[in-house]
Write a structure and sequence with these properties.
The chain has 757 residues and is α/β, with parallel strands linked by helices. The chain folds into two domains: 327 residues, Anaerobic Ribonucleotide-triphosphate Reductase Large Chain; 298 residues, Anaerobic Ribonucleotide-triphosphate Reductase Large Chain (Alpha-Beta Barrel). It has 30 helices and 14 strands. A five-stranded mixed beta sheet has the order 1-2-3-12-11. Strand 11, helix 28 and strand 12 form a beta-alpha-beta unit. It starts with 6 loop residues before the first helix and ends with a helix.
Length: 757
């Protein structure tokens, strides 16, 4: 599959890797401040539209040497005075971990305070992102066709004031894109006059011709389609400030353009690959050489994670793998950058040659592509009792491991739950063992709990208390969003919003809130130990065990050692212990479903979706959690995502996957499983077959998701000591890959722990 990358792409990759994180799109801040002064007396939605046009008309354009797909922003390193303006205009924090985990568990438990809601509410001109636009709508209609549709609607007398405002503002957005594309076309033609070579002159004239056409008119060619998608993505990210947009199933909606170009002789394999690789490199310009929660690039969209789905099935259930699926995979293997994250839609009839090639790329160690089991995702979405089977089949992906319904869903909402903390609260009467503070409600003391089932019920009751509190805060946060943001440019590419004339904050077919269960393996192992020590073997009372955990195992090292080394653990395919994690997971899913939806004051209904997911927060979550009965000390990391606790897997990777596959994925469409395999185990011609066998076996058992990291332990440890030697070393973190040397020390430690298994 691999060819020698052409010099153009290598040059573009070097450009991105040499970007400094200290530079950012400062011009956007000054233009926004100017726009606010000009339009501050306007209604919020109109002010947004006029400011959007102002920025698009005045922002400096950038066409880099040798690039084929254009659209970017000029970045500078700000002075102290300029930085002060940035801090004034932008209220969102730069470090997500500080935002979410830097205070105390009680603020997390309540899903941030009212103060947090007000402090971090979106400004009038910013977006949460985290959804998938209707890229086919853009390519088939263009903003010119969308504008015509809205202008025709404005001729109707039966529009509400809200609808009329939406369409009027939408026309302004379309005009802004027209202005922006025309400016880029003019710049390309101007540069062509002094091009260093005849080849570059021809390329610049072709770029101009592309932008004469897109994104205003329907795309005619594969090249035009890629240019249109990128330009809108770049604007969404850098102008609107949205992050984690998904490109959806690019191999499906771009296929007609690719095939038409092949038939007409306008395109061949190598040219198509070069265009796709150019597209990949542009994606990485948004984030530069960084990781989002440790020395992030200073931008509104922060470390924007961008996803492409390939393969899967068509509407009839047939395999949808095509020539573009192979090309997107080939580009992933050659470019070897942080983004995009490439996801394979796995299904039982997938093209096995394609799957083999995908697994071969995964074996190389950069963490891509990743894999979702179509059947389980669709089943879980249907089991929400809201999503129709037809819509469920068109899922994509945003954020790290969150499922998104393609162009039918609004921006991200999440509720995080450190699940081992609820076991701690049940043991300690609702009080935090670390601080003594009452976090939920005063529950029965350990001395009065008579059975394991009673304890389990109290754990559930603390979860329910916290979930209801979180629902109220989420509703309040939603209301603040709708107050501050009455219109957004992204809504024009969401069919429901366009048809109804209502912004995405109020109108999308589906509105979800992901409720995350973090640390399920820690919970399962802890509950097994509690049941065995206290209720089955009666070696101590529940109060005595509670006191041991309060003391962080002090004076009880022998018992701790016994639990760590002799008690069975989730991840070894032992029903004796696995059933505790399974029961806990089923309880969590049933609680989430029983407490759904969030019914907000203005009539918005938001459904709750359960996931087994900790993102990359297992370490900071652990710092907020006291010692647990599985032998974990206070402050140590909890189990991450769907994985077993680090260091407990004794029966090999197959047994570990067998344990995870028992979890109730029929209710959970999202969440992630990190699989860590030593490089030497997959060496030789048969290594790919071994890895593919693990993947297929897991999915046949009902597994949901798999992202695989193949690394050399010695290389990782050396990279920590000599980062200058390993600038290109990519690892899988969670729903994204990152350069190992850009990770925080805690995250590097976690990656090394994973790889030592």
């Amino acid at each position: 599959m691999l060819q020698t990358m052409n010099a153009r792409i290598e040059k573009r990759i070097d450009y991105v890797k040499n970007m400094t994180n200290d530079a950012y799109f400062y011009e956007r801040m000054t233009l926004l401040e100017q726009a606010y002064t000009l339009y501050q007396d306007e209604e919020t939605g109109r002010r947004y539209a006029d400011a959007f046009y102002y920025i698009m008309k005045h922002m400096e354009l950038l066409i880099l040497d040798d690039e084929l797909i254009v659209g970017g922003v000029k970045e500078i390193i700000p002075t102290a005075e300029q930085q002060a303006l940035y801090d004034k205009v932008i209220s969102r924090p730069g470090n997500q971990n500080d935002m979410q985990w830097g205070n105390s568990f009680d603020s997390l438990l309540l899903q941030k305070s009212e103060e947090w809601v007000e402090r971090y509410a979106p400004e009038w001109f910013v977006s949460y992102g985290h959804h998938t636009e209707s890229w086919p709508l853009l390519l088939q209609k263009g903003f010119g066709g969308i504008r015509t549709f809205m202008q025709e609607r404005l001729e109707h007398d039966d529009l509400s004031a809200e609808q009329r405002a939406f369409y009027e503002n939408g026309v302004i957005i379309c005009n802004a894109y027209e202005c922006y594309a025309a400016r880029y076309a003019a710049l390309a033609r101007a540069l062509a006059q002094n091009a260093p070579t005849e080849q570059r002159r021809a390329e610049l004239l072709q770029i101009a011709e592309n932008l004469d056409r897109v994104p205003m008119q329907p795309a005619r060619t594969f090249y035009e389609a890629l240019q249109a998608v990128w330009l809108v993505q770049m604007v969404n990210s850098n102008v609107c400030g949205a992050r984690d947009y998904a490109f959806g199933r690019m191999d499906q909606y771009l296929l007609p353009y690719y095939e038409a170009d092949l038939a007409a002789g306008r395109l061949d394999h190598d040219r198509a690959l070069e265009l796709i690789e150019s597209f990949y490199v542009k994606i990485n310009e948004i984030i530069g050489y960084c990781v989002y929660n440790y020395h992030p690039k200073r931008s509104l969209c922060n470390h924007s994670l961008q996803y492409i789905y390939i393969s899967g099935t068509d509407d009839a259930g047939n395999d949808a793998t095509n020539a573009l699926s192979y090309l997107f995979l080939e580009a992933c293997a050659e470019v070897r950058m942080q983004q995009p994250t490439l996801y394979i839609h796995y299904h039982e009839h997938i093209n096995l040659d394609f799957l083999h090639k995908a697994v071969a790329v995964t074996r190389e160690g950069r963490g891509d592509p990743c894999y979702y089991n179509d059947a389980k995702v669709v089943e879980a979405l249907i089991n929400t009792d809201v999503v129709t089977p037809e819509d469920a089949r068109h899922f994509t992906h945003y954020g790290c491991n969150n499922i998104n319904l393609d162009s039918q869903e609004d921006e991200i909402r999440e509720i995080w739950n450190i699940m081992p903390k609820f076991v701690e609260l049940a043991l300690n009467g609702g009080h935090d063992m670390l601080t003594g503070k009452l976090l939920t409600y005063e529950s029965k003391p350990a001395e009065e709990i008579a059975s394991y089932d009673e304890l389990f019920g109290i754990v559930q009751s603390h979860l329910e208390f916290a979930l209801e509190a979180s629902k109220k805060i989420t509703a309040r946060s939603d209301a603040t969003v709708r107050k501050n943001k009455t219109f957004s440019a992204e809504s024009l590419l969401l069919p429901d919003c366009l048809e109804q004339g209502i912004d995405m904050t109020r109108m999308t077919r589906y509105k979800h809130c992901n409720v995350h269960c973090a640390g399920i393996a820690t919970c399962g192992d802890s509950l097994y130990a509690i049941d065995r020590l206290v209720f089955r073997e009666k070696r101590m009372s529940l109060a005595e065990l509670r006191d041991i955990l309060r003391a962080d195992w002090a004076g009880h090292e022998t018992l701790r050692s016994e639990i760590l080394t002799q008690f069975p653990k989730f991840g070894n395919d032992l029903d004796e212990v696995d059933r505790y994690a399974v029961r806990f997971g089923e309880m969590f899913c049933h609680v989430v479903k029983a407490h759904s939806p969030i019914q907000e004051d203005d009539g918005i209904t938001r459904m709750l979706i359960p996931t087994f997911y900790s993102l990359d927060h297992a370490t900071p979550m652990g710092r907020l959690t006291a010692a647990s009965a599985d032998g974990r000390r206070a402050g140590e990391p909890i189990s991450e995502n769907q994985s077993p606790v680090y260091g407990v897997m004794k029966n090999g990777p197959t047994a570990a996957l067998n344990s995870v596959a028992k979890l109730p994925f029929r209710y959970t469409p999202g969440g992630g499983l990190n699989v860590k395999i030593q490089k030497e185990l997959l060496a030789g011609d048969g290594g790919v077959d071994v890895l593919q066998g693990l993947l297929e076996g897991y999915f046949r058992q009902g597994g949901l998701h798999m992202q695989i990291m193949v690394n050399d332990q010695k290389v990782l440890e050396d990279a920590r000591l000599h980062p200058e030697k390993y600038r290109d070393l990519l690892v899988r973190v969670t729903g994204y890959s990152a350069y190992f040397v850009t990770l925080s020390p805690d995250e590097q430690d976690e990656i090394v722990r994973r790889s030592s298994l």
